[in-house]
Amino acid sequence: MFLLAALTGMRIGEVAVLRKEDLRENYIDVSHTYSDSLWLGSAKTGESRKVPILENFDFGESRTEWVFEGLSAERPMFSRAVYNTFARICDKLGWATKTSLT
């Protein structure tokens, strides 16, 4: 998940709600982001965009419609959980992080 965000520049909320149907042969159709109240909101700019991906990028296996499974099949992974995990990793590496996601 973090590798995908780093390679594509996708926002945490966009990665968290990535669905299998958003994946194309050589790009990701980014049209949604995580929304606390809606679960699946429109992208930050309000418009979808095509994000190129490396050929044969391995997204792993998922049993749900979501590329990265949440706690249940009906819901995507919480972007806050993703951010907190990333912040813990950065902290262990001694890297500073902004705490803009509360």
Rg over CA atoms, rounded to whole Å, is: 14 Å
Return the string of H and E elements: HHEEEEH
**What is the rounded distance between the termini?**
20 Å
Mean pLDDT: 80
Low-confidence stretches are none
**Number of helices in the DSSP assignment:** 3
Helix share of residues?
25-40%
The largest β sheet comes out as:
2 strands, antiparallel
**What is the beta-strand fraction?**
15-25%
Gross geometry: globular
* Strand arrangement across the biggest beta sheet: 1-4
**Oligomerization:** single chain
How many individual β-strands?
Answer: 4
Describe the protein in words:
This protein has 3 helices and 4 strands, in the order H-H-E-E-E-E-H. It has 102 residues and is of the alpha+beta class. The longest helix is centred in the C-terminal third of the chain and has 15 residues, at 79-93. The protein has a two-stranded antiparallel ribbon with strand order 1-4. The protein has a two-stranded antiparallel ribbon with strand order 2-3.
Topology, element by element:
Blueprint: H1 2-8, H2 12-16, E1 27-30, E2 32-35, E3 39-42, E4 49-52, H3 79-93
How would you concisely characterize the structure shown here?
The chain is built from 3 helices and 4 strands; from the N terminus they run H-H-E-E-E-E-H. By secondary structure, it is of the alpha+beta class.
